[in-house]
Amino acid sequence: GTISGKECHNFGSMLELSWKGTREVALDGGEIRKFLKDGDAVIMEGWCEKEGMGRVGFGQCSGRVLPAIPFPYETQMEETKQPQFKLHEDEYNKLKAELDVLEVRKVALTKEMSLIKVKMAMEGREQDGASLTN
């Protein structure tokens, strides 16, 4: 990716400020970080101005870093030291059952939509003075 500017004071993200986590960043209050943590608030503002020209920018934009949603995988380290993911059987069965229910609902809704389209087409023909027997 790109960086916001040539000088450190131009860097615009925590990733840039910490140089991909290789440098510590001192925060207000004395805390030292390399990355954002769950619960952190991020507030951004931006503008651009040039002498003799108007100022252009956007208002304040803010968000909060939320914890990751737990995923139904169990991590196991192999000899390669690479994580190997194994879905728990009960979680797999639960997700599969939910998927099966959604598939049945999808089929039912597709049929219902087809019937509605046929009904609308029939009503349209009747309003145009045509009958289905013609």
The total strand number stands at 6
- Low-confidence segments, given as residue ranges, are none
Q: How big a fraction of the residues is strand?
A: 15-25%
Main sheet attributes: strand count, strand direction, barrel closure: 2 strands, antiparallel
- Distance separating the two termini: 66 Å
Structure classification: alpha+beta
Radius of gyration from CA coordinates: 29 Å
Strand line-up in the sheet with most strands: 1-2
Query: On the 0-100 scale, what is the average pLDDT?
Result: 80
- Which bin fits the share of residues in helices? 25-40%
> Which word captures the global form?
flat
Number of helices: 2
Order of helices and strands: HEEEEEEH
What does this structure look like?
The protein is an alpha+beta fold and 134 residues long. 32% of the residues lie in helices and 23% in strands. The protein is built from 2 helices and 6 strands. Strands 1-2 form a two-stranded antiparallel ribbon. Strand 3 and strand 4 form a beta hairpin.
